[in-house]
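A protein record in our archive is deliberately plain, so that people and models can read it alike. The tokens are whole numbers drawn from a learned vocabulary of local backbone shapes. For reference, a complete record is included directly beneath this paragraph.
>
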Amino acid sequence: MFFDKYWREDITSMVLRDRNHPSVVMWSTGNELFERRGRSNGYALARETADFIRNLDSTRPITNALQKFGEDDHLWGLFEPVTDDVWGDITKKFCEPLDVTGYNYLPDRLEPDGRKYPERVIAATETFPRSAFDGWEIVERCPHVIGDFVWTALDYLGEAGIGHVLYDCEKTFFGGYPWHQAFCGDIDICGFRRPQSYYRDFVWGNENVPYIAVYKPENHGKTPVISDWGWSDVINSWSFPGFEGKPVKIDVYSCGSEVELSLNGKSLGKKPAGKENKYIAKFETQYEPGELIAVTYENGEEKCRSSLKSASVPVSIRLTPDRVNIDASYGDLSFVTVELVDKDGNIVHYANNNIYFSGSGAGSLIAVGSGNPKSEEMYTGSLRRVHEGRAMVVVRANGEPGKIVLRAASEGIPAAETVINAKAKEREEQK
């Protein structure tokens, strides 16, 4: 409604604010726009917005993310045949002023469009988590495809449940109530990495130590319905009390050509992994508490290993601030990871205890949360139930120097405390 009046002002504010940040690698003029077909003077606007940004910052390329034609176009009475040639021809003029053309969920076009439009540089600007392997294969194979952006890196509120895994049901787009997080992030809403994030490390060649992803035994035998933005319902844990003797499936992510998995000293066999098997070796066994060990082999030689140990009951709360020293004068924040751990310090992933929080001193609690996408709890207040053994608290300085004491307690478990120092900025600079 307000684009014509404010687009120049908004772009100017954005570019002048952020053009000195090295983390900005491209400017985007839009995402999944109806105007990609030229409607509403779209071709001219594509060039006008791109040129306007170049006048403010000529050092970075400019992109815009295009998706396929579909129901959104039909809403506007646009019923042209949706074929590859039509898509390319209709959007070509829209793409001409771009330095990098963004493709959202168009994997089949990435390679052939490099031949059809040899001048075009392409980025896969939105892709599904489960297509990580195939997407990166295209990036490595095609010089004109400069990268692959998954939707999404960090999870968020809204588009509730688009990353869901459901069982024995019809496929749906969203999750029903009480889903409220999208649940499609490589990183959950508290900043904790999810299994697909670890898998991506192997695809990118950034990791050698095998990652053990265990399917939850309570769902064994059920038919999973995984959304396009979802990931297998796995967890990096070997703690499932009550499921002793029950069947359980295990994926091991590994760049090695072969993986051996053993449980309590007994080998469960070797399975192929590596690139030829999309970096996943698959096993099945019966759950038995103890230690699960994965060993990666290359040409018969052991390269590295990892393990999971079953956790016992939770006996303490571990509080880990991301920063123990914050700036008092600017209402600075510290994000505190909350974990329920057993006597050996292992996270008790099966725990779902309520944790009660209180803050005193030179700061206050402003948020509590977990990665549970279906929780009905508030993100404010002093109470939160852990999800897979973890939660998070955000502490804010009140504007005066001093110590902030965060206390956490749960029924039957000793209370824990951590101290965060709110320091005056001048003192920090002098020090």
Q: What stands out?
A: The domain at 316-430 is CATH 2.60.40.10 (Immunoglobulin-like).
